[in-house]
Structure formats: structure tokens, C-alpha cells
């Protein structure tokens, strides 16, 4: 299958294309209007970034925002849609749907792009047909704890009840947290799943797609908390009493060179040092639901802030060349008390891909910040 064009869903719908039976290939309906979401001010630590040299996501100056405005959300019904790879790239009427290409690396997903013509080829040994109706629950990077929950699973928060019994298109469930999430949700309502591999394609009679819910994490909406409330509901958590440090010692990306000293400092103050890779989803939910204080470097483990109680204090350790406000905004939905401490990249300061770089944060500076913010003692 080869396609020269990318197109957004509103433009594709506006073309008025129909199938052989005269039915629209693309139909949509509104789910949520546009909204304004207020952001709580930075509560402690670094609260002014006018002077430090930083590189921010989603854009420069985001640290000072007091509000952001998520776009309206629509549900799209696509007939005769091809769905490709674990990323869930969608093709309709020989056009790639632009909203499904975010963070997609073609070489990782069985796609080839001709540099001269711009044609994109979806490389599949065979195309399987999925009869009936299916819901798109795929996302690039869904093997990652953050992207699985925020880019994929959160869509179930607003999926209309009319689609509760539909087949769910999911990536291969290779990780325990993926299986745990769906098993816990299936205890409320049976789920039927169809897994799509990294270079597989299916042809779906009728595909239900809710694109860009939460703006790929940068513009999260309060409505997305519904599915996380459902995950928490069976948990008989105790009142908050735990102090947590979320370790990234296992990760080779954005390695915090001073993490051993920081973890030792916090352990001496009674903090639990969490290696989340060793915990089940239930154990992670319980830890964060019972937390009064959370400290940790920016990373997928902080996705668990969605399970915290309002008022929980969070100190995120941020890297100067990769200041990412995803977790400030996510915690804001729960009413968390958020602050951050800034560390420095090692080696030349330049706007390079930061995930392969190491960084440092002086433990003494962190200690003083946490002491003043009520995290210690």
C-alpha cells in the first residue's frame, strides 16, 4: 500500500467521500468542547526561569503559563480504514491520517518514505480484515508506561457507552502493566481485544477513533482522570502516609549521575526508594494513592501522579536542556502541590537529542530545597 499524501481528519471529512453503499467514509460527532484549564503556580524550588538557560517543552515560556486551552474533542467513524503497526497509523481512501503520525518513526513501524516523491509505503506481509466495529486504542511508544496510559488508555474515559462492547485494537501486550490495566478494567466490563504487531496491518469495516485526546500529554483534560479513577476504585488504599522517591537507576536514558547520593539522602529521611519495574500496577497505584510526598526525576514513573490524592506534594527533578512540563500539568489535574529543582546537562550545552545525555543535580542543593518545602523531617 502506497500513499503520497497526509491529511487531517477534518479535511478528510470535508471531502465528502462515500463507500460503494453510499455511506460516508468519514463521519464525526462532538465529544468535548474546547476548555480552559487553570495551572496552579509553582509552589517551591525553581519558580522563575527568566535567567537560567533552559529548553522547554511544549514551548519556550510554558513555565509561566497560568492556563492552557485544550481543543475540542471529536469522535470519528471511519469506514474501510487500514490500521498499521503498534502505533496505529491510519489510512483512509489512500490517504494517511495526520493525527495518527505523531511521534511515529517509520523505520520502527514497517513504513518506508521515498525521499524524492514523498510516497509512504506501509510494509506488511499480509492485510487481515477485522469485520464489524473496532475502537482504536493504539499509540506510538505504547510499550512505555506513560504513553500507554496517557496516549492510549485515557481515551476510554470518554468513549461513549454505545461502544463499550466494541472490539479494542491494542498493541501486543508484552508488558505486565499493559495486561494489568486491561484486566482491572475488564473486571468492570468484559473487553474484547485484537493485537496489532509492529509491522502488521488490518482492514477495519468501521473504525472508531478519538484523536489527540489530551494533546499528546501537553494539554491534558480533567475528563481523562475517569479511567484512572476506575483503576483505583477497587483499591482499598490507606490514608496518605508514605514518602516516595521514584528511581530511574535502571534507565540508560537521561542518566542522573548524582542519583545514588540523592536516593541515599532521602532513604535516610524515611523515603521509600521505588524501583517501579519490580512493582505490579496494583502496587504502583497503592504507593501513590498513599503518598504524602513524591520526589523523582522526569520520567514515565511519574505517570502515577494520576493516582495521588489532592494536596500531595511533588518535587520533580528537571534537566536544563529538557525541561518538560508534562507531569506538572498532569499532577495539576489532581490538585497536587508541585515544584521542581533544576539540574545541569554534562558536557557541552546544546540543543541535541537529550535522552542520550547524562546530567547532575547537587544533592546539597536538593536537600536545602526539600527542607524548606516541608519534604524532610
UniProtKB/TrEMBL annotation:
GO molecular function, one term: glycosyltransferase activity
Protein name, entry field: Glycosyltransferase 61 catalytic domain-containing protein
Chain ranges of the Glycosyltransferase 61 catalytic domain: 145-315
Keyword annotations: Glycoprotein, Glycosyltransferase, Plasmid, Transferase
Superkingdom of the source species: Bacteria
The UniProt record lists the keyword Acetylation: no
Keyword RNA-binding set for record: no
A Pfam short name: Glyco_transf_61
InterPro entries associated with the record: Glyco_transf_61_cat, Glycosyltransferase_61
Organism: Azospirillum thermophilum
Amino acid at each position: 500500500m502506497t500513499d503520497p499524501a497526509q491529511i487531517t481528519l477534518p479535511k478528510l471529512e470535508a471531502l465528502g467521500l462515500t463507500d460503494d453503499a453510499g455511506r460516508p467514509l468519514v463521519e464525526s460527532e462532538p465529544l468535548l468542547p474546547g476548555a480552559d484549564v487553570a495551572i496552579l503556580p509553582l509552589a517551591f524550588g525553581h519558580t522563575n526561569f527568566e535567567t537560567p538557560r533552559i529548553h522547554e517543552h511544549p514551548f519556550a515560556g510554558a513555565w509561566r503559563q497560568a492556563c492552557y486551552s485544550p481543543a475540542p474533542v471529536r469522535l470519528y467513524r471511519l469506514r474501510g480504514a487500514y490500521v498499521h503497526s503498534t502505533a496505529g497509523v491510519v489510512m483512509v481512501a489512500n490517504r494517511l491520517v495526520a493525527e495518527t503520525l505523531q511521534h511515529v518513526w517509520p523505520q520502527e513501524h514497517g513504513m518506508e518514505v521515498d525521499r524524492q516523491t514523498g510516497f509512504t509505503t506501509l510494509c506488511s506481509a499480509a492485510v487481515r480484515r477485522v469485520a464489524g466495529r473496532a475502537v482504536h486504542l493504539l499509540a506510538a511508544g505504547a510499550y512505555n508506561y506513560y504513553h500507554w496510559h496517557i496516549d492510549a488508555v485515557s481515551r476510554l474515559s470518554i468513549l461513549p457507552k454505545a461502544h463499550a462492547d466494541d472490539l479494542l485494537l491494542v498493541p501486543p501486550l508484552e508488558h505486565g502493566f499493559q495486561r494489568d490495566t486491561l484486566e482491572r478494567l475488564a473486571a468492570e466490563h468484559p473487553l474484547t481485544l485484537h493485537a496489532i504487531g509492529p509491522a502488521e496491518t488490518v482492514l477495519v469495516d468501521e473504525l472508531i477513533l478519538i484523536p489527540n485526546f489530551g494533546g499528546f500529554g501537553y494539554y491534558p483534560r480533567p475528563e481523562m482522570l475517569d479511567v484512572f479513577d476506575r483503576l483505583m476504585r477497587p483499591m482499598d488504599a490507606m490514608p496518605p502516609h508514605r514518602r516516595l522517591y521514584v528511581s530511574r537507576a535502571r534507565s540508560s536514558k537521561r542518566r542522573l549521575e548524582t542519583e545514588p547520593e540523592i536516593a541515599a539522602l532521602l532513604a535516610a529521611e524515611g523515603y521509600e526508594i521505588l524501583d517501579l519495574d519490580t512493582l505490579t500496577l496494583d502496587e504502583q497505584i497503592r504507593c501513590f494513592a498513599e503518598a504524602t510526598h513524591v520526589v523523582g526525576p522526569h520520567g514515565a514513573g511519574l505517570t502515577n501522579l494520576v493516582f495521588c490524592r489532592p494536596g500531595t506534594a511533588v518535587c520533580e527533578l528537571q534537566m536544563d536542556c529538557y525541561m518538560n512540563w508534562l507531569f506538572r500539568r498532569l499532577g495539576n489535574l489532581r490538585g497536587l502541590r508541585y515544584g521542581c529543582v533544576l539540574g545541569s546537562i554534562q558536557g557541552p550545552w546544546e540543543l541535541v537529542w537529550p535522552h542520550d545525555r547524562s546530567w547532575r543535580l547537587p544533592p546539597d542543593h536538593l536537600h536545602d530545597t526539600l527542607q524548606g518545602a516541608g519534604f524532610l523531617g
